[in-house]
Amino acid sequence: MKAVGFYQSLPITDENSLQDVEVEKPQAAGKDLLVKVKAISVNPVDTKQRRGGDPEGNEPKILGWDVAGVVEEVGNEAELFNVGDEVYYAGSVTRPGGNSEFHLVDERIVGKKPEKLDFVEAAALPLTTITAWEALFERMHLSMQADANKGNSILIIGAAGGVGSIATQIAKLSGLETIGTASRKESIDWAKSRGADKTINHYERFMPQLEEPVDYILCCNNTDQHWENMAEAVAPQGHIVTIVETKEKQNLDQLKNKSASFSYEFMFTRSMYGTEDMIEQHRLLNEVSKLVDEGKIHTTLTEHGGAINAENLRNAHEKIESGKMIGKIVLENF
Fold first, then answer.
1. Which of 45, 94, 265, 322 could form a disulfide with 135 if both were Cys (CB 3.0 to 4.6 A apart)?
2. Per-residue pLDDT, 186
3. What residues contact residue 8 under an 8 Å CB cut-off, 6+ apart?
4. What is the mean pLDDT of residues 36-44?
5. CA-CA-CA-CA dihedral for 312, 317, 318, 319, to nearest 10
6. How far apart are alpha carbons 72 and 102 in whole angstroms?
7. Are residues 290 and 242 in the same domain?
């Protein structure tokens, strides 16, 4: 089957950084589904994996952790889906990615594709949606009931990016006063169109731009750069969640007097460690499908990147690495 992969970690400007390859078509077993891939999206994790070192062995490493497609086969222990079902999911970073004609995925981290979205629109959502949902409802322990969050505020750093675009929608739907960071007119407009009540510039000190400290902060961009601002801007007994690893040591003692808490969100944790609650990602994707079909959440698709091939994926990676991507870029069919 056709796929896009790499044999050597190279700069994206090198034509060998991603290559069109042929690999063996897998078969479904156990709780796996074999999915006919219709559309895929690109995330920063793809670029980090590509730059993270050469693959082991002689086989190409296949990236891609946003897929929308159709179930082709079900494993002998699979119970949640049938052949022909339309699905969407992010998959597992410990397994081959979805940049291939067919893809194996554990059904417990797969959701039913929203009926009102086509495959391209749906492929923009899974990874970022799981990340935002887990950050708000599991790491921050927020309620999904808007009345319970009345009077509370959240600052989303990088509100126009992939995770920020969906986190803004979920936060607003949950009744939070939602503030996003954005620095360009186009990113400000996009963040506000997704539900941000206001925006501030992340290149400037946060507090003079905020009327008062915020109860929650979700950092989707450069934790090191924003640490001092976050520590100052978080309210007493507030909570900071970041999805970006640090490269420098940060002083957690800055949060002590406020009794503020800090945690990471990594949406691959459940699939990476095979946790007993893996099926929660299946449930949350289904809940989001329902919200999409009810018109309460919208796709974050902003750009169609063309067919799924090495050249188009190199272009997509380059846009992600520029740091200026708004929303999500999606590629369709081989």
1. 265
2. 95
3. 16, 54
4. 97
5. 90
6. 8
7. no
Same domain, 140 and 228: yes
pLDDT at 146: 87
Report residue 71 as tokens: 């179930």
Both tokens of 301, joined, read 């698709």
The share of the chain scoring above pLDDT 90, in percent, equals 97
| The pLDDT of residue 271 | 97
| Of 124, 156, 65, 108, residue with least CA distance to 282 | 108
The total domain count for the chain is 2
What pLDDT score was predicted for residue 104?
A: 98
Q: Are residues 150 and 199 in the same domain?
A: yes
Domain ends where: 216, 246, 264?
264
| Tokens describing residue 46 | 């793809």
The SS3 assignment for 46 reads helix
Domain limits for position 70: 2-125+270-332
User: Which CATH number covers residue 9?
Assistant: 3.90.180.10
What is the three-class DSSP state of 175? coil
Q: Strand 261-264's sheet: what is its strand order?
A: 198-200, 177-181, 153-157, 214-219, 234-242, 261-264
Task: Fill in the amino acid letter for 75.
Answer: G
Residue after which a domain boundary falls, among 219, 248, 264: 264
Claim to verify: residue 198 and residue 97 sit in the same structural domain: no
Please name every residue paired with 239 in a beta bridge, in sequence order, or none if there are none: 216, 261
164 and 70 belong to one structural domain = no
Asked whether the beta carbons of 130 and 284 are under 8 A apart, the reply is yes
In order, the DSSP letters of 181-247 are E--SHHHHHHHHHTT-SEEE-TTS-SGGGSSS-EEEEEE-S-HHHHHHHHHHHEEEEEEEEESS--S
Q: What is the mean pLDDT of residues 243-259?
A: 95
Looking at this protein, which amino acid is placed at residue 60? P
Is 0.90 surpassed by the pTM of this model?
Answer: yes
Are 17 and 10 in contact by the 8 Å Cβ rule? The answer is yes
Give mean pLDDT, residues 218-241: 97
**Do 285 and 321 share a domain, yes or no?**
yes
**Distance between CA atoms of residues 223 and 215, nearest Å:** 18
